[in-house]
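Example 9 (inverse folding). The structure is encoded as follows.
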């Protein structure tokens, strides 16, 4: 198999960023991520073992993957999460993690040993009652404390904030105020439609609305548009006098598919070439049979659609008959 082309799709996009979901379990129940009734969990024998995760990750790294992000579900609830993190840390990639932050204190040393420097934490409200409402759990103080712990320990921290109209859009300025004295990046994420998350266009806070809110608070010449890194899904900004920065991720109103370099592996060993695609390629049975997974990877990449899993216009993207065929976010790994 050609080294250079395995991870290239038919549009020439090269995929060097692998996002691995290591569990479908979570200690929160965020309304936009998980249906109220929960999801049918995959039986353990059908989930990737630590050895299988490492084997698949090594395969991708040998074909050019340079960055791996661990996600879930909540990656830190998996019993062998430390072992997985430490072993992935030896692959020489840029290893990162997205977590709800609750279990972070148990992992500070593991992160350091594995060479993790950047941690994304999800927090959608700075008001305890609202945080509890959206997560359907009661961990607000723990998460706030653990954000500070990560900063004190020298990690680069980004806060993921999913914006929902009339719920937390009135906190945009409060989140940006955090960047005045803390060296963090706030990432405002447009609410995306997935199976069972009660998505509705009327709940969307768009890229344009976020900017409008920021501009109503700060003078135009105090707002700096930063240069985005290549393949960055976020448009980056900063208030000039602040230490930290903020960004907007606009998958709904302004998708970034043309520069997409991501591929996803679900906890049950399925390859998803797009967050929004409902077509998946199972690697696990083939891996367990001892056969090569390379042809499956190649076929999966070649079937990648140009835009959002083939939902190339708003009417398709916002059609519940289409997006409900995809998994819930908790079972994809955001
Ligand atoms: N449990 C970890 C966490 O919450 O950070 C990792 C998994 S979570 C699925 C990954 C990211 O996806 C989180 O930042 C979460 O806010 C985001 N997310 C989940 N559902 C979403 C949705 N419907 N629209 C936008 N972002 C979503
Ligand atoms: Fe759990 Fe993260 Fe989904 Fe919230 S967003 S339910 S913390 S996986």
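The amino acid assigned to each position is listed next.
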């Amino acid at each position: 198999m050609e080294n250079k082309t395995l991870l290239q799709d038919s549009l020439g996009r090269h995929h060097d960023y692998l996002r691995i979901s290591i569990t479908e379990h979570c200690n929160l129940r965020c309304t936009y991520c998980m249906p109220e009734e929960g999801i049918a969990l995959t039986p353990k024998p059908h989930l990737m073992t630590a050895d299988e995760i490492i084997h698949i990750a090594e395969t991708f790294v040998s074909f050019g993957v340079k960055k791996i992000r661990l996600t879930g579900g909540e990656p830190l609830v998996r019993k062998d999460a430390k072992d997985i993190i430490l072993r992935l840390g030896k692959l020489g990639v840029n290893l990162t993690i997205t977590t709800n932050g609750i279990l972070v204190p148990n992992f500070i040393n593991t992160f350091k040993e594995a060479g993790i420097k950047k941690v994304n934490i999800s927090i959608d409200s700075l008001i305890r009652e609202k945080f509890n409402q959206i997560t359907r759990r009661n961990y607000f103080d723990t998460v706030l404390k653990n954000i500070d712990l990560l900063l004190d320990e020298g990690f680069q921290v980004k806060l993921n904030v999913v914006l929902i109209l009339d719920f937390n859009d009135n906190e945009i300025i409060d989140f940006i105020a955090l960047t005045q004295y803390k060296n963090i990046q706030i990432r405002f994420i447009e609410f995306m439609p997935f199976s069972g998350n009660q998505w509705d266009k009327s709940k969307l806070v768009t890229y344009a609305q976020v900017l409008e809110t920021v501009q109503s608070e700060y003078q135009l010449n105090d707002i700096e548009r930063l240069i985005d890194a290549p393949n960055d899904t976020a448009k980056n900004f900063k208030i000039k006098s602040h230490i930290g920065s903020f960004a907007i991720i606009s998958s709904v109103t302004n998708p970034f598919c043309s520069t997409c370099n991501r591929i996803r592996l679900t906890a049950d060993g399925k390859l998803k070439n797009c967050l929004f695609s409902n077509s998946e390629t199972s690697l696990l049975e083939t891996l367990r049979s001892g056969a090569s997974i390379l042809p499956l990877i190649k076929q999966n990449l070649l079937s990648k659609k140009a835009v959002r899993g083939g939902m190339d216009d708003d009417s398709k993207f916002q059609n519940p008959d289409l997006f409900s065929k995809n998994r819930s976010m908790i079972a994809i790994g955001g």
